């Protein structure tokens, strides 16, 4: 029974596969995908709190994994609702579109449970390859082959990143003689001062930084966002990042913050990501490219949380990315619905949205202000949790860099708000929304506000999950109440 | 928690914080514009009447927080739902709730498009503003503080004037940039003490370097909001472009949040840093007074004129706070309230002119008083109040601040202090100049005046919205004791805290450890500078 979410996904995948054998099954495929998402959510909720070790200790079911599966399932369901008409996907592959997306989610759902390096790589690839294909599935327009360039870039970078990841893992296995992440911490302990271990870990991180779009593994991000169909970009931008963060947490927990070089490196990457993403985003005129660069900056915030190197930081990173999934989906709903023909959307094309579709405007406001970290939206609570975690460990300058970056970022997020709320367009064609879209918009608004105003349960479960899954490490008292007594003077 | 809080059965503050939010949700489902207007008025009026409970039920003898509500909110973060009012905040809460019905009234005809969204924004603002003044938990405070930005930016950006987009963005970015440092300060305090609760934080004493950094982080954010001199440039833009109700809310309430922040957080939590950086704030305050007045004198746009006069008035408020004596702080509280009343009224008056002439140019409005005698009478009294004419409310406030300033100089005279004191002279004279210039133009004009025939005088609704403010001007002007008595105990307690933790380098009560709550919160009826409200104020 512990395997229920995966079973639900497998059943959905089989059904989708059979559907894809026929023609013009896109609508049915969407329904099946939606049902699969519902199945994953229900199954993950039903198995919440169960514990188990499957497949000779390669696959661990616990609060951590089931909670993330729940979020992945919910995000996937929202994404299926978001992918409605697929105007810019070739009509003959629209059913396969859902099949590939579901395969990707299946990869991610297994990824969060993997505690063995081999299983982990397989799951990671399972989630990556369908995305390469999805990026290329955009309809070919006259004189535009951006989707092919994007897909090639995504794939080449992806495969390189996987190569780096495998290279790093080979060292880790060489040091410890095991591929099990459960046994590795103990065996790695005596080697932790060895620079070669740091190299191994940094290389392994690299593969995941690619998924998360952290500097310097970010190069694919804006091009893929721009080149892929909106729906694909929405998928690439959200769920894989949560999966990557889950693995990053496991890998980071292998070491200790005593390895000063690693701390410095991670801090530098976080700051570089934030600065690079935010500064370049200031100049963007294409909404999706802007979201791409903003994604690089947001990945920097998540990496910053890891620098705390304790459960509070890991939980903050996962909580932030959980919120991030829904904030970005809120933005992409607007992109998908405003660009009715699937063409890329320039920032100024959002003008007049407050008259064309007020609900979409409010959804965009929720998404954008959440990304900017304005309360009462989830982005604020996430940033507060990150700030608290890293400050408690004495990383004062990183915290200050983070808030300065949120101040910079506020500008380009406001540009979106300016266009959507304050500007009027010449031709104000009303945008009718289907009931499903309205429901999705309301749901995303409620989630972004709800996670921000009442995050207690979610965060508590996440941190319990992190503490439980990292098992061997002692529970950290700084989750509640005052933290490390030796917090330095700013 | 051994703090003594008075408990009430009716959760007054909860109603005042969440009532407007609930009303906003209700309005969102209404369809007819007339119902929406009436609903907004009914909701704000009901809340205003309800909030009078705070006035009648407030225990003026104690500095303790009253109507305290405390509940778990986000345990893992250490954040609580913790609200309460003391003498400092209760006045500002009342100012907020009592002004809101007037804001609804002055938008009655002014807002013609997207009426529902406008009143929803206004009510959400009310929620957040009451929240800011009552929150006793730093996270809760910050959430309200920032949450206010969104509806305010929308008010300016959607219903504002021609350059509304620029003004809204500037307002948002300035405030946001300031408040990220506030967030850093909050996190720093938490990591040091393990609590976000303001009364608990007051029991801690921090070393001076830490105080200094946190003070700067907080002060930067509050200085943007006040706004203090070099950071004030968002204010004229936002005021000029905002719709009337937006300007009123901005001037009367939002600006007070900065000074309130200084009083609530900087003074009691970082007393040493307050002393250390105080002279800089005092200097900037005097610059703001003179500069604001000079800039106001040069304006030809009525709203810009009133906006710059706000900069000058808020200079008095910040000066009073950092003079660090009872006269100064009570005067500053009074200046805040008076500014809320008078400047709010002036913005409404400008809005009335704009509704009639569709311009705010001073020259185009010349000699309007001939057609609108009732309006001219109102404008005259508010202009007199703005220049602190004896008998009006602002006189008392500025007079107290001046007394505080003189006393501050008297405590340890130095040349630069006298220099600052001299700065009051042009500030007061110029205030008379720009107000009389405006009044003279609008009421009498020059030999060549634009033709204003056929322009109607004030209607009943318009009189109804100016009359309460006029009453406040006269009431506080002639009989300020009730208001002063509200703040007295809290101000006194605030100052004692600042002194106890600051005096000398020797071991003080606080440096030996946390102050026992009872001593910290028990009001004292004797001592230096007390009983101000009971004394007869010289000069009256």
Outline the structure in words.
The complex is a heterodimer of chains A (490) and B (540). With 490 residues, chain A is mainly α. Chain A has one domain (4-479). Chain A has 20 helices and 2 strands. Mean pLDDT of chain A is 87; it is low at 472-490. Chain B is mainly alpha-helical. Chain B has a domain at 271-496. In chain B, a hairpin with a 4-residue loop joins β1 (66-74) and β2 (79-85). In chain B, α12 (271-297) runs parallel beside α19. Chain B is globular, with a radius of gyration of 22 Å. The two termini of chain B are 44 Å apart. The A-B interface holds A 354, 358, 365, 369, 372, 374-376, 380-381, 383-385, 387-388, 391-392, 396, 399-400, 403-404, 406-407, 410-411, 414, 417-418, 421-423, 454-456, 459-460, 463, 479-483, 487, 489-490 and B 72-78, 117, 139, 142-143, 146-147, 149-150, 153-154, 157-158, 164-165, 168-169, 172-173, 176-177, 180-181, 183-184, 187-188, 190-195, 207, 209-210, 213.
What attributes does this structure have?
heterodimer; A: 490 residues; mainly alpha; two-stranded antiparallel sheet; 20 helices; 2 strands; 1% strand; disordered C terminus; B: 540 residues; two-stranded antiparallel ribbon; 22 helices; globular
